[in-house]
UniProtKB/TrEMBL annotation:
Belongs to the TrpA family. It comes from Actinospica durhamensis. Pathway: Amino-acid biosynthesis; L-tryptophan biosynthesis; L-tryptophan from chorismate: step 5/5. Keywords: Amino-acid biosynthesis, Aromatic amino acid biosynthesis, Lyase, Tryptophan biosynthesis. Tetramer of two alpha and two beta chains. GO terms for molecular function: tryptophan synthase activity. This is Tryptophan synthase alpha chain. The active site is at E49, D60. The alpha subunit is responsible for the aldol cleavage of indoleglycerol phosphate to indole and glyceraldehyde 3-phosphate.
């Protein structure tokens, strides 16, 4: 069992959902993003996603785009991203890279898998890579002991869900809404149905992301999902902070709120 699977199993044994937090590497700086991820973990985040900044962020909403662009403007590289992974993974929390496929392919599929494993990374989430085109990545991930997370969406047919879950290791990422990332006033009502449909095809944990921004929403999702994924809300806390120190306080406080909420979600 991988470290990621162990953490998800431990959360299930506690009758709660796992809390998964996302931040792009390099914002507000490379060292600043490591510090922010560690603050999130100290606040109660179980698993972290490190975003690999990319110039064509198809799924990213305006908040994440702003942070990603700042990191790109500062000259962040894939090697910097791996340094952020190493800094977060050193805490013991499973650390995934969230990336579009193009930068990994350009870096070199096996080279990236080897470097990610060497940095202590747990695996990847690849939102724009479909199972039919993932043979090279699946082989590289398996060769280096990495988990591989793919996405299902509200529009996914049963056949598509079955195909996707078959190649998932670690968890299945259920996108709770169509469109780009970002905070929402309410969680999509169809998220629960998507989780139920996905569980018809797999025993791999199903974690829900896109749109969760506060404790109330996190508790709502935790009541039916194996994990609650929060991204834009953490990034917003950093963007709105007057300085890096204040940003760390803000993301830690949000993590504490969300961690308490996922424990209430099953009660």
């Amino acid at each position: 069992m991988s470290k990621l699977a162990e953490v998800l199993a431990a959360a299930k044994a506690e009758d709660r959902a796992a809390l998964i937090g996302y931040l792009p590497a390099g914002y507000p700086s490379v060292d600043g993003s490591i510090a922010a991820l560690r603050a999130m973990i100290e606040g109660g985040v179980d698993i972290v996603e490190v975003g690999l900044p990319y110039s064509d962020p198809q799924m990213d909403g305006p908040v994440i785009q702003k942070a990603v662009q700042a990191a790109l403007d500062a000259g962040i590289t894939t090697l910097d991203v791996l340094r952020v992974v190493e800094g977060a993974a050193a805490t013991g929390a499973p650390t995934l890279v969230m990336s579009y496929w193009n930068p990994i392919e350009r870096f070199g599929t096996d080279r990236f898998a080897a470097a990610l494993a060497a940095a202590g990374g747990a695996g990847t989430i690849l939102p724009d890579l479909i199972p039919e085109e993932a043979d090279d990545w699946i082989a590289a991930a398996d060769a280096h002991g990495l988990d591989r997370v793919f996405l299902v969406a509200q529009t996914s047919t049963g056949e598509r869900i079955a195909l996707t879950t078959e190649v998932c290791r670690g968890f299945v990422y259920a996108a709770s809404l169509m469109g780009v990332t970002g905070t929402r006033d309410a969680v999509s009502g169809s998220a629960k149905d998507l989780v139920a449909r996905t569980r018809e095809h797999t025993e791999v944990p199903v974690c829900v992301g896109l749109g969760v921004s506060n404790g109330v929403q996190a508790a709502e999702v935790a009541a039916f999902a194996d994990g609650v994924i929060v991204g834009s809300a953490f990034v917003r806390r950093l963007i709105e902070a007057p300085d890096e120190a204040s940003g760390l306080v803000a993301v830690r406080a949000l993590a504490e709120e969300l961690a308490e909420a996922v424990r209430k979600g099953r009660r």
